[in-house]
Amino acid sequence: RVAPGLPRVLLLIGLFMMLVQIHRSGGAVIANELAAQGYSPSQIAIVISMLFLASALFQLPTGIMFDRYGARLTLTGLGVLGIVGIVLFAMSSSVVGLSVGRFLIGVGHGGTIAGVYMLALAWASADRVATTTGAVVAIAGGIGGILATTPLVLSLRALGLQHTFLAVAVLTMLVTIALGLFIRDAPPGVDSGASAQRESFTQSLRGLWAVIVDRNLWPLF
């Protein structure tokens, strides 16, 4: 049985992931644009890599936030940082500004796929979780990946980098607001993992350390 609010949840998180994927998949297009503006290959490499560096560094803190505050508050709260990063990237004309912008995008949006899984686990029946998450990641991620190719090139040529990414920032802001207003961590009457039991920050760190020192997981790491 499908929860009544599941289509809305999947639509909004799918739109969010689609916009996030533009930044993750558009590196080559953005690199060409920066090269045309006179930036050196090493400078471009730094700018492009900042998003992935931030995403990697903040996976664990983001996971703790998901467990403590739930998907809705974490995605919308960190999403604000992502929007600030997009605006900073759009408005900057220096390597430092562009890099900081990309870094904030990585911090704000690096946990999106984890958020998809958390919402699917809460809203979809157990036998449909894999199908639900696979569909959202494939469809939304695929569309975002497509938008990061020729459509992004055409937009950069017509509008320039600043106006293109300011437009992306506005769209991302609207979807982020919608996430905060129109989704819940779980259907009514069902406790999500975050609301069922609140851990202190110290308890979360202890749990994280227990996972890190588990030798059975080392080959996986």
Describe this structure in words.
The chain is an all-alpha fold and 221 residues long. 79% of the residues lie in helices and 0% in strands. The chain has helices at residues 6-25, 27-36, 41-57, 59-91, 95-109, 112-123, 129-147, 150-182, 193-196, 201-212. Helix 4 (59-91) packs antiparallel against helix 5 (95-109) and helix 6 (112-123) packs antiparallel against helix 7 (129-147).
What's the total count of β strands? Answer: 0
Percentage of residues in strands = under 5%
- Overall pLDDT: 92
N- to C-terminal separation?
36 Å
Task: Look at the helices and sheets and give the structural class.
Answer: mainly alpha
User: pLDDT below 50 for ≥5 consecutive residues: which ranges?
Assistant: none
Rg over alpha carbons: 18 Å
Describe the global form.
Answer: globular
Keywords:
single chain; 221 residues; mainly alpha; globular
Short note summarizing the structure:
By secondary structure, the chain is mostly helical.
What is the topological layout?
Blueprint: H1 6-25, H2 27-36, H3 41-57, H4 59-91, H5 95-109, H6 112-123, H7 129-147, H8 150-182, H9 193-196, H10 201-212
Helix pairs in contact: 1-6, 1-7, 1-8, 2-3, 3-5, 4-5, 4-6, 4-8, 6-7
